[in-house]
């Protein structure tokens, strides 16, 4: 849930994007339209269904993804969401080019495939 005492949309967006699972979930949509079950399968060992559902609702709230019902319900980027993911991919590339310890896997793969996220807490 977003903080209720944030009254600036920019700060609210920064808070949301800074939460642990938002960007990894967002990047799952990079080249895909996904149903909830497809996304759940990809994140199953890492994120519970409630948190995944909440994150999807918040991505919709910010108009980053949209819910499509074409006989089957799936989610896809809006134009705004596609623009945002392009920025995030540029940040990943910037990090690699500027000495951040980023494995090639981080640049090419999904965050959900990364050893960092698969570690037990």
Question: How would you concisely characterize the structure shown here?
Answer:
The protein has 121 residues and is mainly alpha-helical. The protein contains seven helices and two strands, in the order ααααββααα.
Kindly describe this structure.
By secondary structure, the chain is mainly α. It has one domain (9-118): Winged helix-like DNA-binding domain superfamily/Winged helix DNA-binding domain (Arc Repressor Mutant, subunit A), CATH 1.10.10.10. Helices cover 55% and strands 8% of the residues. It is built from 7 helices and 2 strands; from the N terminus they run H-H-H-H-E-E-H-H-H. The protein has helices spanning 9-18, 22-28, 36-43, 49-61, 79-97, 104-108, 115-118; strands at 65-69, 73-77. The chain has a two-stranded antiparallel ribbon. Strand 1 and strand 2 (73-77) form a beta hairpin. It is globular. The model has no long low-confidence stretch (mean pLDDT 81).
CATH class: Mainly Alpha
Average pLDDT for all residues: 81
Strand percent estimate: 5-15%
Largest sheet, described in full?
2 strands, antiparallel
Sheet with the most strands: spatial strand order: 1-2
| Number of distinct beta strands | 2
Rg from Cα:
15 Å
- State the CATH topology: Arc Repressor Mutant, subunit A
Low-confidence stretches: none
Order of helices and strands: HHHHEEHHH
Determine the N-to-C terminus distance: 22 Å
Tally of contiguous helical segments: 7
